[in-house]
Design a protein that fits this description.
With 1398 residues, the protein is mostly beta strands. It contains 13 helices and 100 strands. Keywords: Immunoglobulin domain, Repeat.
């Protein structure tokens, strides 16, 4: 049934009337198209008439299609022409094929139909026309597809993204090849669109547009982005100018560090919200942000940060700023030094590890050799691999490979790996290199599809798979088997898969055969390989082999491929030849340019390494750590003024070449360039026919002295300027020039050019129009020749020359003005108030980092003249590496001034001046210059040398310094010179004396600085003494101690002892005077020490008799004895009466080792007396006495005090606990209480009324205890005695203040109390609550600080904290308690109580 005038042509729905194409072949689309455009002409047709009209059509190809529907022979031919392989077809192709099949079946049905003659003729004519059309179509196919093969679609020209304004039209173009002719479909954000509709863009058309090409062989797609801007763009029509400032310099980093590079980008004019495109490059390759590379753009600052530097990061870094008006770029080199090696002599890490030719189970790893091999040549490399997602590194090769390329096999298909490389030499293994990029073990075709990303969105493609006739067939033989790599370590084979292999995939067996034999041996017997690559190891070096490959699948093993031909196992890639001898040229103060001839006939060159060595050291240092492929390299980071030689070596995968010949030695200095242009051309004096001109020197002399200047002139008439003419053909050497032979009253302009050995500079800016007319002014002209020296952060020295024109009277002074460069003319201010008669001045108090402009005005009797030309701007900043003049006094006392410069250029000289004038009197100073160091030696320093000495280094960027020698400074230098001429040996300790055992006397001193040649002379009363029986001398040169020993001091030894020291020309003397009382006192001590030594030869007292008081208040007399034998007699006596063994007191005597004790017990007046102990045997005797009587005030009083200190507590807490018959009421004088387990009664200031019988009754309700004490008579006297002693003791423990009697505190508050404590020794402190001891914890914070302050802190008190608290202090002399009460209240409870009362 043919209801519509449409047919399908290669997937397109084509109208047979107007030949237009509809997007989709659907009834709704076809019907709408026909009703819209052809309803009036064809709606009236119906039935067979309509079908016949449709079949006739209006075009030859439509006739072809009409016959095609009914010609089963044609349909059968087209079907048989289809490929037998599995194909992919679109929906429309499937529909067309079904249509062909259906119509073919209908056509093959036998029909009986009567035809008229006219119809038969018409059909015959149509068949002829059909044959002609088919012949034309066949010719077209041959022309478009000459190889008669089908090809998948391929984009020859891909559509390009565009940015357009809203409302404009845009077209996307592309060119696609393929056969059959691909069908092109367009998608917008994955949605099918009609590509033939005109597109007037609006903002919502911003999207990604896909072009999809489809035929029976496959599909391909490409994407383009359309950006539609709405409204007016502020940058439209603006021309931008880009300036890069604050540029990063050549940078040096070390592996593992982080390095940042940055520039400030100024874009003019400023357009709101407009941002330039910032792109960073390394060696002309654009950098993309990653974990190693971070880029940042903020405001107008572009920053690149390199995280964890590696040698791969070395290279030329470029910042490119793109605007719509163009681009600007800046570049600088970044050097990355190797990290310090862990083991001395090992090589540094290799670099640039990459993966190539990855397949299902195979990958080739390459790297570059490091610049430094270490203490010996590199023996080989180890390759490690790690599966992504794990941290386990596995070594890929057991034997190190020397070739910088290695095939890694045995990978697992579908898994990702990273690799690293380590170098090996005799000293050990290097650190590993930076890991490679991750690589996936998979078929290259699959990788290509993954890398291409997803194709166009779903296009309705259906995959039809017919039974593969090749299933179950043994695969054919591989083709093109070749040896791609051959080294001493391995051979790599590559081949193409067989044509006949089915769809199940094939694997491969590799076989080898040694030349001269016919025996083939399978290499991979265990497991066939999946990749068409294979590396063979363990081959005999120098032997020849043939190789072939077999395919296998589930059906079996196929026939072998053709052999490769004989291959000799060995390195096919030769080492590179040595590069040509390098040529070095000057570049800057820290860099040179090295050029060399390339290595000849080198294959696969990785690059060149450049090394340098300072002349005389023979230590070679790499200039680059990443090989460069060019034959020119700028070596940075060199020392200015140093002399270097250079050499170059090439490197490829096979290894290093021989080193090139060494270059000629070159001194690192800046290259000489032409000077900059002079500035400030002004008129200094004018007469009728000549004018005197002046100008400022160039700011940069180009690295060489300016040799002269050329002056040009031109006439000016109104606004018409004449041509420039030269005034002098021979250069003038000063900054002034007398322009003669001028015409009076004519205006002239002048310009000046400077000249050095490199050439002539550009011309200065023209002067203002100057009239040649005689001056009649009376004030002086402008000073000339302004320049600065000694530029520092806060100071600068400005110098000038007097004006050429003095006026009516001579110049008698100058005024210097300055202003900050950023201010206008109103910013000028004078540096000084009083006139300056000198031609220089030092300006101080400048702001660091600020630029200034200076000018000078001259003065005579008539007044102040006009200012000079401006000098500047001058930046107040100390140049890095600047050194000052230092004054030195050498060992011979010679005074000199020294100035060093590390930036000497060719032709640079040191120029000394005094008061900034050339030194003409050579008799005062001698100058010695040597290699960047100048020394000005004072021949005979005197007051004539006072002044300011300055030194300038010519042919540099104004390197200079000065030193002002004052009268005070000269005096100090002369003193120091005298000390150096006549040195004195310094003493760390002057002579001292000390008394030793046996009464021996030691005289000693210590020398601070001396040489091994030091000699000592010992003198007593001007007489030299020597070593003998009386004197012993010693000089310990390890510590400088000089000693002299005397066995004893006699009367004749009174006088002066002296040590005289001589050390070369240095001398030193130290003395000690022993006369008069000092000598006699020392003599007595000496005799005493000798007697003590004699005493200790027999039994003696180590500690003499003394006493101690026990805890039970017993008094012990004790002493320590030494050097005791069994035969030694020990005798005690009291009041000269010996205590015999049978005496009562003998039981009180005890001896424990070297300790003797006599326990008196509770002391009383009856114990008073003189106690003695005697020691005696055949070696000698000794005795000790202790006086415990009223006469022995010191011992007795001390004993009573010590005895009573502890008794105080016992008497007060035991004796006074007994209460008299009459009940005692508590008062301020009498207080009773309980502390711990003790009851106490305290009587302050006891009197006679306190005598009596004290009784204590304790009753618990059932039983009771009574204790009675008579405090009368002798007990009363002893009590008073003890109490007086106790309270008179100032060392007992006491609470001296700080604690209240009662503390009332609100619940929830924190309580903190501190009590002041006294006692010697420091008392023990404890706290009690309700007679229970407190322990410091989270609730109670107890502290005792500095032995004086005891504190208690209770955080957030509660009512449970209410109670009776006591601070107990105790030492061996007594105990005391500070008692207080804590009351905690709740405000709510208090209010409730008040309400109840109310």
């Amino acid at each position: 049934n043919y209801n519509f005038f449409f047919t399908e042509n290669r997937g397109d729905c084509v109208c047979l009337i107007c030949q237009e194409t509809v997007v989709l072949f659907k009834e709704f689309n076809v019907k709408r198209q026909e009703q819209t455009k052809h309803a009036n002409a064809y709606d009236k047709l119906a039935g067979s008439e309509r079908s016949e009209k449709i079949l006739k059509g209006a075009d030859p190809w439509s006739k072809w299609f009409s016959h095609l529907f009914f010609s089963h022979d044609t349909v059968r031919g087209l079907l048989e022409a289809q490929d037998e392989e599995t194909i992919e077809e679109g929906i429309h192709y499937v529909a067309m094929r079904n249509l062909f099949v259906r119509e073919a079946k209908e056509a093959m049905q036998v029909k009986v139909e009567k035809k008229t003659r006219s119809k038969h003729v018409r059909e015959s004519a149509e068949r002829l026309e059909m044959g002609r059309v088919m012949e034309e179509w066949s010719e077209f196919r041959k022309k478009m597809n000459p190889d008669s093969l089908t090809h998948p679609p391929e984009f020859i020209v891909k559509p390009r993204g565009q940015t357009v304004w809203e409302g404009r039209s845009v077209k996307l173009h592309c060119t696609v090849a393929g056969w059959p002719k691909p069908r092109i479909t367009w998608y917008k954000n994955n949605v099918l669109i009609d590509a033939k509709c005109p597109m007037h863009c609006d903002f919502f058309d911003t999207a990604q547009y896909y072009a999809s090409a489809l035929n029976v062989k496959g599909e391909s797609s490409s994407v383009a982005t359309i950006v539609v801007k709405n409204g007016f763009s502020p940058e439209h029509g603006v021309t931008f100018e880009t300036t890069i400032i604050d540029k990063f310099e050549v940078a040096f980093g070390r592996e593992g560090e982080t390095l940042s590079l940055g520039c400030t980008v100024i874009v003019y004019p400023t357009v709101k919200k407009y941002q330039p495109e910032i792109q960073w490059y390394r060696d002309s390759v654009a950098l993309k942000p990653s974990k190693w590379v971070h880029t940042h753009w903020s405001g107008n600052r572009a920053t690149l940060t390199l995280i964890h530097l590696n040698k791969e990061d070395e290279g030329m870094y470029t910042l490119r700023v793109n605007t719509k008006s163009g681009f600007d770029a800046y570049s600088a080199y970044v050097f990355v030094k190797d990290a310090d090696v862990e083991v001395e002599g090992v090589p540094v890490a290799p670099l640039d590890v990459r993966c190539h030719d990855a397949n299902k189970d195979y990958v080739v790893v390459t790297w570059k050799q490091p610049a430094v091999e270490g203490s010996s040549s590199i023996l080989g490399y180890y390759i490690d691999r790690c599966e992504v997602g794990t941290h386990h590194w596995a070594q890929c090769n057991d034997t190190p490979v020397k070739y910088a390329r290695f095939p890694v096999t045995g990978l697992v298909e579908g898994r990702s790996y990273v690799f690293r490389v380590r170098a090996l030499n005799k000293a050990g293994v290097s650190r590993p290199s930076r890991v490679s990029e991750a690589v996936v073990a998979m078929d290259p075709a699959d990788r290509a599809r993954l890398r291409a990303g997803p194709s166009a969105p779903f296009t309705g493609m259906i995959k039809f798979t017919e039974e593969d006739p090749t299933v179950g067939v043994v695969p054919g033989e591989p083709t093109d088997v070749v040896v791609t790599e051959a080294t001493k370590s391995y051979v790599v084979l590559a081949w193409k898969p067989p044509v006949q292999r089915g769809h199940e995939g094939v694997m491969y067996f590799i076989e080898k055969c040694m030349s001269g034999t016919e025996t083939w041996q399978r290499v991979n017997t265990g497991m066939p390989v999946k990749s068409p690559r294979f590396a063979l190891f363990d081959l005999a070096e120098g032997k020849s082999y043939n190789f072939r490959v077999r395919c296998c699948n589930s059906a079996g093993v196929g026939e072998p491929s053709e052999p490769t031909g004989e291959t000799v196992v060995g390195d096919k890639l030769d080492l590179p030849s040595a590069p040509g001898s390098p040529v070095v040229t000057r570049n800057s103060s820290t860099s040179v340019v090295v050029s060399w001839a390339a290595s000849k006939d080198v294959k696969h060159l990785a690059g060149y390494y450049i090394e340098c060595s300072e002349v005389g050291t023979n230590v070679w240092v790499p200039c680059n750590n990443k090989p460069v492929k060019t034959t020119r390299f700028v070596c940075h980071g060199l020392s200015r003024g140093a002399n270097y030689v250079f050499k170059v070596k090439a490197v490829n995968a096979a290894g290093y070449s021989q080193d090139s010949a060494n270059s000629d030695a070159v001194v690192v200095q800046p290259a000489i360039a032409i000077p900059s242009k002079p500035t400030g051309v002004t008129l200094l004096e004018a007469v009728k026919d000549y004018m005197v001109l002046g100008w400022n020197e160039p700011g940069d002399n180009g690295g060489a002295d300016v040799r002269g200047y050329f002056v040009d002139y031109r006439t000016v008439k109104g606004s018409v300027f004449g041509k420039w003419h030269e005034m002098n053909h021979q250069a003038v050497t000063s900054c002034t020039y007398k322009a003669e032979n001028l015409k009076e009253n004519v205006l002239y302009q002048f310009q000046v050019r400077a000249m050095n050995m490199a050439g002539v500079s550009t011309a200065s800016l023209p002067s203002s129009s100057l009239e040649c007319k005689e001056w009649t002014i009376t004030v002086p002209g402008a000073p000339v020749g302004l320049h600065v020296l000694e530029v520092r952060d806060t100071s600068v020295v400005v110098l000038w020359e007097p004006p050429v024109f003095d006026g009516r009277s001579p110049v008698n002074g100058y005024y210097l003005d300055l202003k900050e460069a950023s201010t206008g003319d109103e910013g000028w201010k004078g540096v000084h108030e009083k006139v300056n008669t000198k031609k220089y001045i030092k300006v101080t108090s400048l702001k660091p980092g600020t630029s200034y402009v200076f000018r000078v005005r001259a003065q005579n009797l008539a007044g102040v003249g006009k200012p000079s030309a401006n000098l500047g701007p001058i930046l107040a900043q100390t140049r890095p590496g600047t050194k000052e003049i230092i004054v030195d006094v050498d060992d011979n006392g010679v005074i000199s001034m020294i100035f060093e410069c590390s930036e000497m250029n060719e032709g640079s000289e040191f120029v000394w001046s005094k008061n900034y004038q050339a030194i003409t009197d050579s008799s005062r100073l001698t100058f010695v210059n040597e290699k960047g160091r100048s020394r000005a030696i004072f021949n005979s320093p005197s007051l004539e040398d006072l002044g300011t000495f300055s030194c300038v280094v010519t042919n540099t960027d104004g390197i200079s310094s000065s030193y002002t020698l004052t009268e005070e400074g000269l005096k100090r230098l002369l003193d120091l010179s005298h000390e150096h001429k006549f040195p004195v040996i310094p003493f760390k300790n002057d002579m001292a004396m000390e008394l030793l055992e046996k009464g021996c006397v030691r005289f000693w001193c210590q020398v601070e600085k001396f040489t091994p040649a030091l000699q000592v002379e010992y003198v007593f009363n001007d007489a030299i003494i020597t070593q003998g029986k009386k004197y012993t001398m010693n000089f310990d040169k390890s510590n400088g101690i000089i000693e002299m020993f005397m066995d004893s001091l006699e009367v004749t030894d009174e006088g002066t002892f002296t040590f005289n020291l001589v050390d070369g020309k240095a001398k030193g003397t130290t003395s000690l005077v022993l006369i008069g009382d000092e000598f006699r006192e020392l003599q007595k001590k000496s005799e005493f020490e000798r007697a003590e030594w004699v005493r200790k030869q027999g039994p003696h007292f180590v500690e003499y008799l003394d006493f101690a008081v026990t805890q039970e208040c017993d008094v012990l007399l004790k002493c320590k004895i030494g050097n005791i034998k069994k035969e030694t007699e020990i005798t005690w006596s009291k009041d000269s009466i010996e205590i015999a063994e049978d005496d009562e007191d003998a039981a009180k005597i005890e001896r424990t080792d070297g300790d003797l004790t006599f326990n008196i017990g509770k002391i009383s007046k009856t114990d008073a007396g003189i106690y003695e102990v005697f020691l005696q045997d055949e070696r000698g005797k000794d005795k000790s006495i202790f006086n415990l009587t009223d006469a022995g005030t010191l011992h007795y009083g001390r004993g009573v005090k010590h005895a009573a200190r502890d008794k105080q507590f016992n008497i007060l807490s035991v004796l006074l606990l007994h209460i008299r018959d009459a009940k005692i009421a508590a008062s301020e004088r009498v207080k009773a209480g309980v502390t711990g387990e003790q009851l106490w009664l305290k009587i302050n200031e006891p009197t006679e009324k306190d005598k009596g019988k004290y009784t204590m009754d304790i009753f618990d309700g059932k039983d009771g205890v009574k204790r009675v004490f008579e405090l009368t008579g002798k007990a009363w006297e002893e009590f008073l005695f003890v109490v007086d002693s106790c309270f008179s003791c100032s060392d007992r423990a006491r609470v001296v203040g700080g604690l209240p009697d009662v503390v009332a505190i609100q619940e929830g508050k924190s309580l903190n109390l501190t009590g002041n404590v006294w006692g010697e020794p420091t008392p023990e402190v404890s706290w009690m609550k309700n007679d229970k001891e407190l322990v410091s914890d989270d609730r109670y914070k107890l502290k005792f600080e500095a032995g004086k302050f005891a504190s208690i802190t209770i955080a957030a008190v509660t009512t449970a904290d209410s109670g009776k608290y006591a601070l107990i202090v105790k030492n061996k002399y007594g105990t005391e308690a500070g008692v207080f009460t804590v009351s905690v209240y709740n405000p709510d409870d208090e209010e409730a109580k008040e309400e109840k009362k109310g």
